[in-house]
Amino acid sequence: MTEQQRKPITTAKLRAMKKKGEPISMVTAYDFPSARLAEAAGVDMILVGDSLGNVVQGRETTLSVTLDHMVYHTELVSRAVTIPFVVADMPFLTYHGSVDETLRNVLRLMQDGGAKAVKLEGGTEVLPAVRAAARAGVPVMAHLGLTPQSVHAIGGYKVQGKQNEEANKLIEDALALEDAGAFALVLELVTDELSALVTERLSIPTIGIGSGSRCDGQVLVFHDLLQYSDEPAEKKFVQTYANVGEHIKNAINAYVADVKSRSFPSERHAFHMDEEAAKQLYGSVKSK
Ligand code: KIV
């Protein structure tokens, strides 16, 4: 199917895909050209993730990402695409205050950023935020398992749901989030067994990252998937489909060599005056 024939993805379509057992593809994007390429490649959903703190801003965690950063990047992405369903992350501590404050922050991501949905991390503690946004007609994507905004409380980036107590809590949270109105659930770094069980128990789609193959869909970070970095993403759950970082480095290296050897720019890159004007210019320069 060509891009012209594809219809914009909606929450109803995503739910129908789960029902039919049709896998959902999602990738992160943070700017206009990346979003355009993701759309042209046929992706169903784009996440403007606060992972931009890591891969765009070069920070260790996502905690530095502000609402203004998210609005800026979401607007670039939303303006670039018509078909994929664009979800924007609510950044650190922007949905833990009053419901009014949460809704004001949602408003900015949707009205100024153009997002079609928001994503927020956490279980029962974020139910008031999920409920309020869903009641206001906002599609909310929930996020359980490894929740990077709580990295300091969790004590590192580790696999979740290995023990039964933790697994049962995650199942309870997932059911409560669905009940509160979430339209989808991201499961990050959750054991394969647990994510399969959650996927079976929920009627909303689950989107996995590092959570095995039995979720309804998968999401990867743009820079990990493409190895858009000067070093490989050393994460067991990542599959790299290209080595864009190496291509960029080699291309810039070739440019530097051409500049140093004066082979760039060449005659075909130059702009010229007409002959008469050039003669006059040289004459006037000489006479000074
Ligand atoms: O910020 C992000 O990119 C995410 C994905 C890892 C799910 O939350």
Order of strands across the widest beta sheet?
1-2-3-4-5-6-7-8
Strand content: 5-15%
Number of domains: 2
Morphology: elongated
- Tell me the number of helical segments per DSSP (H or I, 4 or more residues long): 12
User: Average pLDDT, to the nearest integer?
Assistant: 96
Q: Given the helix and strand composition, which structural class is it?
A: alpha/beta
- The helix-strand sequence is HEHEHHEHEHEHHEHEEHHH
Q: How many β-strand stretches? A: 8
pLDDT < 50 runs, ≥5 residues: none
Helix % is 40-55%
The bound ligands are: 3-methyl-2-oxobutanoic acid
CATH architecture of the largest domain: Alpha-Beta Barrel
- Sheet with most strands: 8 strands, parallel, barrel
What is the CATH class name of the largest domain?
Alpha Beta
Q: Termini separation (Å)?
A: 67 Å
**CATH homologous superfamily label of the largest domain:** Phosphoenolpyruvate-binding domains
Pick out its properties:
eight-stranded parallel barrel, elongated, alpha/beta, 288 residues, TIM Barrel, binds 3-methyl-2-oxobutanoic acid, 8 strands, 12 helices, 2 domains
Short description:
The protein is an alpha/beta fold and 288 residues long.
